[in-house]
């Protein structure tokens, strides 16, 4: 991997990838890591960016979310040996390295051109792995992905930055293009967006756009999708890996339904 320090000039929603990268780097340095993501730490070390502006929060909930989604991806590709995996808004996430899919899997990472340009310092296209430089709202990225195999589409920490109408359009395009598969994505509720609004704006300039308080709203977006599972990170088995006092705080807070549903990981089949 290129050890040169790379200047980062990302803004708004593109800059939010730095929040989760920083969380993974802090996690790797901790005594009891959740992800233990060495490559994320190596990428973090090469970026010329003042990460102190992101605060000192280790973002444990995001790490639990990532761990749970890793498990869902692993489960899917174990069941479908020739699957297509599409990671929307991949940022600088190293999921493809953490999962290390078998040779029969075709993996596509999709994000803005500015993000993929940065990502190319750390990854290269190869047999079974392709990066696509497109906005998620640009339907042309779909043309580069085969649609005749079981497909897993992942969108972690990204759909909340789109408008509701853009999310609906994206879901419709996905289910119209691919024959069958699953969607794995997370949603935030209105309470969570209100709580984090000012901090997110100060850190990156980004704003959340799409809140989900009632999951029935998603079902109405696309008749082809069917809910498979819903998980609050507060109910995750990986919560036990969060350090003591913070875990106690999360456990106590999650008795409030609004808090518990601040973030939910959803799985749909289509």
Write a structural description.
This protein has a single domain (59-269), classed as Vaccinia Virus protein VP39 (Rossmann fold), CATH 3.40.50.150. Helices cover 39% and strands 17% of the residues. The protein has 11 helices and 9 strands. It has helices at 12-15, 17-29, 38-46, 60-79, 95-99, 113-119, 164-177, 190-204, 216-219, 244-253, 257-260, and strands at residues 6-7, 47-48, 84-88, 106-111, 129-133, 151-155, 181-188, 226-231, 263-269. The strands form 2 sheets. The protein has a 7-stranded mixed sheet with strand order 5-4-3-6-7-9-8. Strand 3, helix 5 and strand 4 form a beta-alpha-beta unit. It is globular.
Notable features of this structure?
single chain; 270 residues; alpha/beta; 7-stranded mixed sheet; two-stranded parallel ribbon; 11 helices; globular
Number of domains: 1
Overall pLDDT level: 94
Computed CA radius of gyration, to the nearest angstrom: 18 Å
What amount of the residues lies in strands? Answer: 15-25%
- How are helices and strands ordered from N to C? EHHHEHEHEHEEHEHHEHHE
Approximately how much helix is present in the residues? 25-40%
Largest sheet: 7 strands, mixed
CATH fold descriptor: Rossmann fold
Query: What is the CATH architecture descriptor?
Result: 3-Layer(aba) Sandwich
CATH C-level label? Alpha Beta
Strand segment tally:
9
Give unreliable regions as ranges: none
> How is the largest sheet built, in terms of strand order?
5-4-3-6-7-9-8
Q: How far apart lie the N and C ends?
A: 38 Å
Q: CATH homologous superfamily - what is it?
A: Vaccinia Virus protein VP39
Number of helices: 11
**General form:** globular
Secondary-structure-based class equals alpha/beta
């Amino acid at each position: 991997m290129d050890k040169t320090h790379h200047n980062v000039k990302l803004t708004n929603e593109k800059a939010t990838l730095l929040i989760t990268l920083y969380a993974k780097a802090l996690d790797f340095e901790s005594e009891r890591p959740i992800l233990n993501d060495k490559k994320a730490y190596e990428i973090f070390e090469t970026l010329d960016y003042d990460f102190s502006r992101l605060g000192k929060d280790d973002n444990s909930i995001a790490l639990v979310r990532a761990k749970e989604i890793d498990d869902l991806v692993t489960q899917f590709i174990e069941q479908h040996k020739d699957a297509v995996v599409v990671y929307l808004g991949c940022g600088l996430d190293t999921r493809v390295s953490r999962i290390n899919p078998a040779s029969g899997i075709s993996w596509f990472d999709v994000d803005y051109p500015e993000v993929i340009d940065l990502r190319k310092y750390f990854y290269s296209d190869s047999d079974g792995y392709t990066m696509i430089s497109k906005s998620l709202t640009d339907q042309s990225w779909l043309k580069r992905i085969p649609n005749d195999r079981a497909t897993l589409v992942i969108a972690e920490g990204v759909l909340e930055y789109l408008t509701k109408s853009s999310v609906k359009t994206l879901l419709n395009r996905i289910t119209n293009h691919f024959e069958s598969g699953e969607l794995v994505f997370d949603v935030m509720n209105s309470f969570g967006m209100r709580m984090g609004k000012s901090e997110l704006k100060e850190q990156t300039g980004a704003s959340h756009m799409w809140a989900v308080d009632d999951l029935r709203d998603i079902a109405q977006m696309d008749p082809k999708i069917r809910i498979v599972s819903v998980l609050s990170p507060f109910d995750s088995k990986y919560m036990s890996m969060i350090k003591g006092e913070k875990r106690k705080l999360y456990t106590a807070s999650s008795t409030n339904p609004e808090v518990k549903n601040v973030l939910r990981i959803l799985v749909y089949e289509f």
